[in-house]
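lol ok so funny story. i was supposed to be doing the assay writeup but got distracted and ended up predicting the structure for this chain instead. priorities right. anyway since i did it might as well share w the group, maybe its usefull for someone
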Amino acid sequence: MRMYIPSQQVVVNAFKSKISGFTNHQHKIFLTPFTIPFNSFILNNAMAELRLFPKHTGIWEGTYIRINAQGEKTNEWKSRLTIKLNEDGSYHQVNQYFWADGHQECHDFGVCHFNEEGVLIFDSPRIQGYSWETKDSVCLIWTYLNRPGSKLFEMIDLIGDGTHRVRNWRWTENDEFQGITMIEERRVATQDEIDPKFWNDLPNLRTSGPSRSDH
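and the output, tada:
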């Protein structure tokens, strides 16, 4: 269910309506032109309404299994995702991947922001897309910039006591279905337990160039 966010005019009209009830001969209130800090007002309220994103912060460890359109497993790797919501309402996610042969990758999606409808916008050198809350799930749609025809659809759900989650990606490119990625993760640390040193070391961890996980 998409959260309703009022327009600027609706907010202004509601404010005027609210205070007009207190206007009388003894206590006059004069309405003069004023400016509401609209973006801050709307975004703060949108953040206050987020029900699911805050439950997905912290450190999650798990396994990714890539399956092609014929149902065959083509890849598998371990993962460690570090996710936090900043005090200003922005979102930061870093994915670390580990393969059995010793290969490692670290993908930093940068500091992302929610728009006025509470939708999280991803716009990084690697992907472009957006994510939103439904009643029970977090959904994402994105494109890999190195594969302009690609479009992936993801659903994320918490199960059990909220420290266990399941995810799936559905891969498409142009008019072709290209299989799925199945992901199972458990939270091993809360946001407050993330070591601050991780963020300081992040510039030295980031991966550049092609990724094994992009196909």
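The chain is about 15% helix and 45% strand. Confidence is low (pLDDT under 50) at residues 1-38.
back to the writeup now i swear
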